[in-house]
Structures are given as structure tokens and as C-alpha cells.
């Protein structure tokens, strides 16, 4: 139980255990869902009801066009003539 052989043997056992747990996970989920009481919104498909998001209203009272000339980016700086 030492050295590389022991380490590889332990890793192999852990991988087998993980594979078994993955295969049995749906069975555990099924048994755990049987014990729960169903709510009124449940239609029996086992899925949670989808909650739809409401869209936020935009404030009216302005134009939707961007105002021009307010950005400082790209504007040429006025220079005073050199003497």
C-alpha cells in the first residue's frame, strides 16, 4: 500500500466510486422527491415553474435621439494664434 502502485490503486477506487454515485444520482433524486409534498403550482412534471421577468418602463418625455455636440471627445480644441 505504498508508492506509486498504492496511489494509482486508490485513485482507481475513487474513480469507480464516483462513477457509481453518478449512475445512482437520478435514483436518489427520485426517492427524495417522493417524500416532499407538492405545492399548488406543481403540474407533476418535476420542474419548477418559470418566473417571467417584467420589462421596466422607460420614462417618456424626451427624444430618443442622442444629442450632438455634447461630447468632448473628437472636438478640435480652439487655439489662439501664436505671436
Number of E-type strands: 0
Range of strand content: under 5%
Which regions have little confidence, pLDDT < 50, spanning 5+ residues? none
What are the secondary-structure elements, in order, as H or E? H
Percent helix range? 25-40%
Structural class, from helix and strand content? Answer: mainly alpha
Major sheet: none
Secondary structure tally, helices? 1
Average pLDDT level: 76
Distance between the termini: 92 Å
What is the CA-atom radius of gyration, in angstroms? Answer: 33 Å
Shape: flat
Blueprint (SSEs and pairs):
Blueprint: H1 3-34
What do you see in this structure?
The protein is an all-alpha fold. Helices cover 39% and strands 0% of the residues. The longest helix has 32 residues. The model has no long low-confidence stretch (mean pLDDT 76).
Describe the structure in brief.
With 83 residues, this protein is mostly helical. The protein has one helix spanning 3-34.
Main attributes of the structure:
about 80 residues, mainly alpha
Amino acid at each position: 500500500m505504498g508508492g506509486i502502485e498504492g496511489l494509482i490503486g486508490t485513485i482507481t477506487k475513487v474513480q469507480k466510486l464516483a462513477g457509481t454515485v453518478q449512475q445512482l444520482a437520478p435514483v436518489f433524486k427520485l426517492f427524495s422527491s417522493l417524500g416532499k409534498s407538492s405545492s399548488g403550482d406543481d403540474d407533476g412534471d418535476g420542474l419548477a415553474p418559470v418566473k417571467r421577468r417584467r420589462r421596466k418602463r422607460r420614462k417618456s418625455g424626451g427624444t430618443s435621439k442622442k444629442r450632438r455636440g455634447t461630447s468632448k471627445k473628437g472636438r478640435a480644441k480652439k487655439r489662439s494664434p501664436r505671436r
